[in-house]
Every structure is written in structure tokens, then in C-alpha cells.
Amino acid sequence: MSTNAVDASQPAGPSFTAPGTLTPVLTEHWGEDRSWTLEHYLSVGGYEGLARAKTMSPEELIGLVKGSNLRGRGGAGFPTGLKWSFLPPMDGAPRYLVVNADESEPGTCKDIPTILANPQALIEGIAITSRAIGGDLAFVYLRGEVTHVYRRLLAAVREAADSGLLSTGFGLDGEQPLRIVAHAGAGAYICGEETALLDSLEGRRGHPRLKPPFPAVAGLYGRPTVINNVETIASVPGILAKGADWYNAMGTERSKGHGIFSVSGHVVSPGQFEAPFGITMRQLIEFAGGIRPGHSLKFWVPGGSSTPIFTPDELDVPLDYESVAGAGSMLGTRALQVFDDTVSVVRVVARWTEFYQHESCGKCTPCREGTYWMRQIMLRLEAGKGIPGDVEKLEDIASNIAGRSFCALGDASATPVLSGIKRFRDEFEAGYTTPARELFPYRASSILESAR
After folding, report:
1. Under a CB-based contact definition with an 8 Å cutoff, are residues 362 and 368 in contact?
2. d(CA 452, CA 447)
3. pTM above the 0.70 mark?
4. How far, in whole angstroms, is CA 271 from its chain's centroid?
5. pLDDT value at residue 372
6. How many angstroms separate the most distant Cα atoms in the chain?
7. CATH assignment of 345-442, given 1.20.1250.20, 3.10.50.40, 1.20.1440.230, 3.40.50.1370?
């Protein structure tokens, strides 16, 4: 996937956030030679934010991040500085930062490219955050399947540590260096849930924990812990280097700043587009070259497979947390998947349902049993062998999963089923008699076939 940038002649600041513009910050140097090295990162102003952070107290750092209105980029959008402030006062015992890099929801693909192309931004952000919360040991929980990214992260941590950049002022006694541990998970979607991640990091099977206590009070090894996503932590150095006002000049009234929007699917040029919150899907599709020639947009999702489906009617909804929620969906991780008129909604929802059924940890009955039965029905409908009443049964099962499972995976599994039926009920009911492959041939949806 390619990255996209605006004209370098554009000035920084408020004028940089005009509607429809891009704001390359984390992605600005992705395409440059050896952008992942410390040498390159320092040449473009890297670690200026950390230098400023070392002149500030933890309270001042937390206050600055609060003032920037940075919100978590893992999907929930919770205020970052406020989350840090939940940790109890320092008591001389360890406290931890855990970076969630277990990116695995269908369509989500921003954190892994960030680590691959610009790992030092994450490492600098870890150093600043650790100083703010009073910790000297941080963990990055990464998917073990992405071996090349894991190796790059290990090399980047070693390079930063050997340079001495992480060696002063982080210990509980003011002398111990900051240690960063890159941990490769075995590969489980459930470990993207923060408490299941903690269980996995401690060497147990990844299962979500009952809350309270929350991680801020009793997290990793029972100690106060901050858990943030890669993009959140990597955004912190820019705020330290350029100030809260710079960050607040971007975005909307309640959704400040910039974010990476991952546009995939039936567009001419899929890619990562870093833009202020409030940009619209219509504008992002234009940046991506439009829908592939000869076709029209049928449906899209704003935040990955776990968010309710949108149609062309929502193309002009501002992509910020409040506007997307007001329109009936969730911004999530900004994994914008685009499907044109050749695509079967039933086929797409069936693939997503198979994913959630496979990834359910099995801890709670609604998710464990409900995803199994949804999968069976979805496969029947896709094959044109549905039984009259299957659509209503799907609605009933999904409604009994949503809001009743131990963690959010159950809600995520129910969402595409319910929103798919709501938007395209006739297509689901067609599955009583006609296979999806006849209504929407595979060949027509293939980008490779259409290019021939």
C-alpha cells in the first residue's frame, strides 16, 4: 500500500487543516530511504519531543497531553492524558506501559506499517509516556506472524538504547535506564483486548479479565499499567515537539488532531491517508483515485469489520468519533473497506463471521455458541441453501450476543450481521434460493480479473 502526502509547500498550523487536505505527520517520511533507522529519524527532528519531556515533570507531561485532546487510536477514542492520570500515586514499586500492537481485525492495517516504516516515533513516544507515568519498563505486544516487523522493532529498540537516548532519568530512583521489551504473541485476535493481552504477556492463555479492577490500578503483574495502541503512543512526540495548540488546530471540535485512514478494497489506489479528523469518505476515495473504473460504490465500513455498514448515503459524514456515531456506526480503527457493485454483502459478512467464530476465546456462552450458529446460517445463505426464517434467526442470535458477552468480541461479531441485514435484507433473503456466487460471480469482484 502506498502513502500519500500533500504539497510540501503547505504551511503548518491551522491552515494545514482545510477540509479535504492531508496532514502527513507519522507517515511523512515513510517513502524515504531507510526511514526506519535512528539516523534518518534524527535527521528529520526525531527525539526533539523527548528532549523537551526531560525538562518537564510527570504532572506537566500528563497536563500537556490532556491539553492536546489526544484520544486513543485503538478504536475506543478515550482521552489519552485522562487515561494516564488514572494511575495511583507512585509508591516506589514498578508500574508499566504496554503498547498494544496486536493489530488483527479484518481491514485494519495502520500500526504494523507504522512500526515497519517509522519505529523510532513509537520508541520516542514510549520514552515520553514512561516518563509521564513514572515507569522504567515498557512492553510492545506484537503479532508473532509479522516476523519482519518484529525484527525491525527489535533492531530499532537496540539502536535507540545503544545511542544513550533512553539512558537517563527514567528509573524509579532516577538512574535506571528505560527498558523496552518487544514481545511476539502467538497470534490471537482476542489478545487485542487489553486484559486478554495482559494474560498472554504474563504467560497464560489470552482470556479477557473481569473488570474492575482496571489495568490502571491492577494491570500487568498486578501493578498499575497504562495500555495504549501504537498510533496513540507514536503521536505523542509530535505533541511534545510542536505543542498542544499545533495538535488542536487539526480535526473537529471534539475529535482533535490527525489520524491514519487505511483505505482498502475497490479503489484505484488503496493506501494509508493521514488526515485531520473530520475528513469525509468521499474525499478519501478521491485521494485514492476513485472507485475502480466501470463500477460504483455499493457499501463501505468506517472502522473495520466490527463497525456497522455504511452505503453511499453516508459518504459526506465527517469522519470523527461523534459524527460517525451519530450516523449509526463507529470510527473504530479507521479501517475503511470499500466494496463496489460486484460484491455480495452476504459473502463478505460470512467471511467476517467465520473470522469471529474462529477467534472467539470460548470463555463466555453467548460468543462461543452464538458465533458458531451465526456461521452455520451465513454459510447456508451464501450457498443458496437457506431455510425460510434464517434471516430472522440470525437477527435473534446476533441480538442475544450483542451486549451480553464477556468482552467486545461478541459485539464485534454481531455488528456486521445486524447491519448487513438492516441495509441489504433482500440480498440475505435471496440466499434461500440462489447462491451468492450466481448473483455476484467471484470473477467480477476480483481486481486482478478486472484488470485483464
Report:
1. yes
2. 9
3. yes
4. 15
5. 98
6. 71
7. 1.20.1440.230
